[in-house]
Automatic annotation (TrEMBL):
Gene3D superfamilies: 1.10.260.100, 6.10.250.3420, Tetratricopeptide repeat domain. Residues 47-109, 239-312 are annotated as: Disordered. InterPro entries: Hip_N (IPR034649), STI1/HOP_DP (IPR041243), STI1_HS-bd (IPR006636), TPR-like_helical_dom_sf (IPR011990), TPR_rpt (IPR019734). Residues 239-278 have a biased composition (Basic and acidic residues). Coiled coil: none annotated. The lineage of its organism: Eukaryota, Sar, Alveolata, Dinophyceae, Gonyaulacales. The keyword Secreted does not apply. This is STI1 domain-containing protein. Residues 333-372 form the STI1 domain.
């Protein structure tokens, strides 16, 4: 029987048997169906498809290592987090006051009758007198009567807001200040009072913004101290947020560099393995089956018109059959390397490279075809021995 095969064919067969011994599941590849049928016809026992003695052991040793690295990264990030500073006790802090808030004026501009204007003026006067006498609730009631008549000015809302803050109702105060600013966007008094209300609630950023705006519009000496206090609080918060942002950006950049390094190392390793496979005896290696193991290919050639076979070397995680000399363009393309890490795209590339007839199977899948066409362009327009590629544009 040996006399019917030359030395190269025997070496290729020996390499094939060695490969199947390492990974029996290769016998289930479609292109090896003829070989499996031959073995079965001889009464051979075919191993179960899950029989892969080498890989599980490798995965079992690599998985804990990956988990350990992730745990270490998580610990480093946690250690880098800036601890929350205990909030200083603030004797002026007020609790949130719930709705309902005092009624506002009817929407829109209305024409007041003489008696309505007189009633509004009387209510405003009564509110001012009650306020002078320290009757805050009565003053609030009178201001509300005046506002509900209609055409309330920004000053009317601002005065009632100031009164609401004295009554320890900061949220209601903020609502009136916002209404005042809606009537007059240049109301410095409304901005200042709203800033003070935010200060009472510990809303330091909002307080800083409103007080600064109010002082620019209409400077008030009595607001200087509270503005300075709020500015110090805001400065601490801003500095802490800046430090946190810088740390997050640094961590993101570190993760990006590590990922690029990992991909380059994986690509370099795959390239070296492909070069070793290329220098091995004819037929050696053949990841993914027997692509070009025997000189001249298997009888009948590879499926889809590949009578010459394809190079025996391969790149783990990339389609089988790529000439190692063409790897240089692929190694420096992050998009292709990321695509080859996708199991679905990897499988599709392997199917199309091993059998060009499978291109029709994926011609309506834009993601697969985009990667395939880009890979072909990186390899100089395609694989010379691939039949069935004429329709690729």
């Amino acid at each position: 029987m040996a006399a019917a095969m030359d030395a190269d064919q025997l070496k290729a067969l020996q390499a094939a048997v060695a490969k199947l011994s390492d990974d029996p599941s290769l016998i289930y590849l479609p292109e090896l169906a003829f070989f499996k049928d031959l073995l079965l016809s001889w009464g051979a026992k075919i191993p179960d498809v899950s029989s892969k003695p080498a890989k599980p052991a490798q995965e079992s040793t690599e998985a804990p290592k990956v988990q350990e690295e992730k745990a270490k990264e998580a610990e480093e990030e946690e250690a880098e987090e800036e601890p929350e500073e205990p909030e200083e006790e603030d004797p002026e802090r007020l609790p949130e006051d719930p709705e309902p808030y005092p009624d506002k004026a009817p929407p829109g501009e209305i024409e007041l009758k003489d008696e309505e204007m007189d009633a509004q003026a009387a209510a405003k006067q009564a509110a001012a007198e009650a306020l002078e006498d320290g009757k805050l609730e009565e003053a609030l009631q009178k201001y509300t009567e005046a506002i509900k008549i209609g055409n309330a000015s920004a000053m009317m809302y601002a005065k009632r807001a100031e009164l609401l803050l004295k009554l320890r109702r900061p949220n209601a105060c903020i609502a009136d200040c916002t209404a005042a600013i809606g009537v007059n966007p240049d109301s410095g008094k409304a901005y200042r009072i709203r800033g003070k209300a935010h200060r009472k609630l510990g809303h330091w950023e909002e307080a800083h913004k409103d007080l600064s705006t109010g002082q620019k519009l209409d400077f008030d000496d009595e607001t200087v101290d509270v503005q300075k206090f709020v500015a110090e609080k805001f400065k601490k918060i801003s500095e802490r947020q800046t430090r946190q942002r810088i740390r997050e950006e640094a961590r993101a950049e570190k993760r990006k560099r590590e990922e690029i390094k990992r991909r380059k190392e994986a690509a370099q390793k795959a390239y070296e393995e492909a070069k070793r496979a290329e220098s091995a005896p004819a037929g050696g290696g053949f990841p993914g089956g027997f692509p070009g193991g025997f000189p001249g290919g298997f009888p009948g050639g590879m499926p889809g018109g590949m009578p010459g076979g394809m190079p025996g070397g391969g790149m783990p995680g990339m389609p089988a059959g790529i000439d190692p000399s063409m790897f240089a363009g692929l190694l420096n393309d992050p998009e292709l390397m990321q695509a080859f890490a996708n199991p679905r795209l990897q499988q599709a590339m392997q199917e199309m490279m091993s059998n060009p007839a499978n291109i029709a199977k994926y011609q309506n899948d834009p993601e697969v075809m985009s990667v395939f066409q880009k890979m072909m362009s990186k390899m100089g327009g395609g694989m010379g021995g691939m039949g069935g590629m004429g329709g690729m544009g």
